[in-house]
């Protein structure tokens, strides 16, 4: 089962808005083998940068593009391939977008393995603990508390028992921050309210906000600090009256190790399009040893949505699934299968591999760049 072709495609919606939403473009990686199978994956990063990492020619043994590294390899040997990619990119990789590009390939390799053996990925990972998981609607804040309340009510009416609000305009003032969270609680009613601060606070301000937000009974405060402030997260988690969640910005095991070794979080959020199945499995084991909780991060397409469900179903204490509800065609129409909650619950895919298939007409319509 040798790799014979790697196709990298960039898709983009026609009108990209200035907002923190990674469902406006996508980079797809399609790995093809000599027995006619294709595996698909994606990375949540700048698509053009991911494409450059895959397309780059060989420079020397530890500074090579990923396509050069992969052609001719046995697609079933995902662990060895991960290590080979890591070493071949050491001079410009080891963290960040290079690991994200590796993760897209890793996702495609697991999809291939599932198709080869006719099994869903969760079975290959060791077996699922859950056939379905409660989902939370993940959406951005309104511009104030009133608009946020309206957004929350909309998604409660749609059947979600939990809603997460995030990013701008939080962080402009204490008054606005509290107004946003008050609005979230009013809109969601007696459901679960999750708050994503979007990396806007220093450590002491984050503690002040955590104490203020606790009055509204939030389920967690997510990413209040910059991702690299590992000591700050440990300090905050020890003092906060509400659970602290983070991790979506980390690419692979090395970033998560900084958080895990400090016991810095209550909820570790793993993005399969930045970690791949190979490193996400390592992270799961480490977090479960701590007795902390795991959740996915996903704000891209149904490909990562499906990957997240396979991985999350293998986490024995999985309790919530992040379900992006952005009104983006890339989020909802890239695959023939719909990866979206119904009445607040989402079902784990059962088809071979990821269990989703690309809508090729959709790909053609939104394609802006391709290489192979």
Describe, in plain words, how this protein is organized in 3D.
- The chain has 372 residues and is an alpha/beta fold.
- The protein has helices at 47-55, 66-70, 78-88, 96-117, 121-124, 145-157, 174-188, 203-214, 230-239, 253-261, 272-290, 302-313, 329-333, 360-366, and strands at residues 3-12, 25-33, 38-43, 132-140, 162-166, 192-196, 220-222, 244-246, 267-270, 293-296, 321-324, 345-347, 367-371.
- It folds into two domains: 3-119 and 360-371, Enolase-like, N-terminal domain (Enolase-like, domain 1, 2-Layer Sandwich), CATH 3.30.390; 123-347, Enolase-like C-terminal domain (TIM Barrel, Alpha-Beta Barrel).
- The relative contact order is 0.16.
- Helix 6 (145-157) packs parallel to helix 7.
- Strands 4, 5, 6, 7, 8, 9, 10, 11 and 12 form a nine-stranded mixed β-sheet that branches.
- It is globular.
């Amino acid at each position: 089962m040798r790799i014979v072709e790697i196709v990298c495609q960039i898709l983009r919606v026609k009108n990209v808005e200035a907002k923190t939403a990674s469902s406006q473009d996508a980079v797809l990686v399609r790995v093809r083998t000599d027995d006619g199978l294709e595996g698909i994956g994606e990375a949540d990063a700048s698509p053009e940068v991911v494409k450059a990492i895959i397309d780059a020619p060989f420079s020397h043994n530890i500074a090579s593009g990923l396509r050069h590294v992969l052609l001719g390899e046995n697609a079933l040997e995902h662990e060895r391939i991960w290590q080979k990619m890591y070493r071949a990119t050491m001079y410009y990789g080891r963290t960040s977008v290079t690991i994200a590009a590796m993760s897209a390939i890793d996702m495609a390799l697991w999809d291939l393995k599932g198709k080869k053996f006719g099994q869903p990925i969760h079975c290959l990972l060791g077996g699922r603990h859950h056939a379905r998981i409660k989902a939370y609607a993940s959406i951005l804040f309104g511009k104030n508390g009133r608009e946020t309340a309206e957004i929350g009510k909309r998604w409660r009416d749609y059947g979600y028992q939990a809603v997460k609000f995030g990013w701008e305009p939080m962080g402009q003032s204490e008054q606005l921050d509290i107004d946003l969270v008050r609005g979230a609680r009013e809109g969601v009613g007696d459901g679960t309210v999750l708050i994503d601060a979007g990396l806007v606070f220093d450590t002491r301000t984050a503690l002040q906000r955590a104490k203020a937000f606790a009055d509204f009974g939030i389920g967690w405060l997510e990413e209040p600090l910059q991702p690299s402030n590992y000591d700050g997260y440990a300090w905050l988690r020890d003092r906060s009256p509400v659970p602290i969640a983070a991790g979506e910005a980390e690419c692979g095991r090395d970033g998560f190790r900084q958080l895990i070794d400090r016991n810095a979080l209550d909820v570790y959020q793993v993005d399969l399009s930045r970690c791949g199945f190979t490193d996400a499995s390592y992270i799961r084991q480490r977090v479960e040893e701590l007795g902390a909780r795991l959740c996915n991060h996903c704000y891209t397409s149904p490909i990562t949505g499906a990957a997240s469900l396979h991985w999350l179903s293998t986490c024995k204490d999985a309790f919530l699934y992040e379900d992006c509800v952005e009104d983006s065609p890339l989020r909802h129409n890239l695959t023939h299968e719909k990866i979206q909650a119904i009445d607040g619950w989402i079902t784990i895919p059962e088809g071979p591999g990821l269990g989703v298939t690309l809508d090729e007409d959709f790909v053609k319509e939104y394609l802006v760049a391709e290489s192979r």
